[in-house]
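task queued by scheduler; priority normal; single chain, no ligands, no partner chains; default sampling; output format set to structure tokens
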Amino acid sequence: MKVYRMIIVLALLTVLGCGGSTALRSCKVYLQKNKDFPKAEQWCLKAIDEEPDGWEGYYWLGWAQAEQQKYAEANEAFTRARELAPENKKEIVRENHRSFFVDHYKRGVTALETRNFEGAVEEFTKAVTIYSEDGNAYNNLGVSYSRLGENQKALDAFKHATDVDPSSVSAWKNLGGSYMTVGQSDLAMQAFEKILELDPDDAEARYSLGDAYFRAKDYEKALQHYLRAAENLSDNALLKYQVGASYFRSEQYAEAVEAFMEAARLSKDTDLMTYEDAMFNLGVAYIQLEQYDAAVAVLERLLEVQETAETHEVLGRAYARQGKQDKALESLRRAEEIKAQQ
């Protein structure tokens, strides 16, 4: 990275030459030859006082400040240099500005990949402070914060990511998920809808939009988006479960039964938690339909997998509706025993 930076500097020196005011020449000498960055900063500031609209003074000032890790000030100086530079110089100023960012960004990626989330936050924070125009850095900063449970800081980082790069589907997904985490379903909807504007066929975004509507208790719209998502995610057991839950909350119990059955089939050998939830709610849906024999069969099968107080309680209700009072009382007693043991 040091070699890359020096190559660009030498190229820039060749383009600029060694002219300029005494203050600007002194700034360059202290920066490049003496490596005295505080002195270089002082002379660059004098050069700017002498020529407020001169882009080179800001450029070298940014360099001197960056070497001192005064990243916020350096970012302002580099940005101002690019604004003032002629068109044929703007890109090389940007590349030199960004070179300080790259070091920290790469360290941040390594830290994130090795689950050093504190280190990742530190490096990505430095990266976005020195160069605030890279959406990926803000996105990764948000991911790092979220892994640490810093939900509000993660949310703020994801907002910056979408501001810097409004076309980033990844950033919008993370922003939507972050809004869901902090309980702001309405703003989560806006984020997921933005993704669908960018890519109407993004089934994962449509699934997440369904989750946002479900969280907001708008089960009809949740169901619409879940069903659209299921067209491309037909083997997703949890999505099928959410379809069933939306039908159930909408009191469409027959449709809920079908969806829960499919969720149970898909998850039986791969996702025990989803399987248990699907079977439990399938039994409840059968009770709502007054199909007690079917409810009993499902709930008894579920007890073979895992015995819980809740399953015994619902099974007891089903037995009672069948007129099997002894079995109902037995299930309810067993439910109380399990609760007492917890």
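post-processing summary
- The chain is about 80% helix and 0% strand.
- Residues 2-240 form a domain with the Serine Threonine Protein Phosphatase 5, Tetratricopeptide repeat fold (CATH 1.25.40.10).
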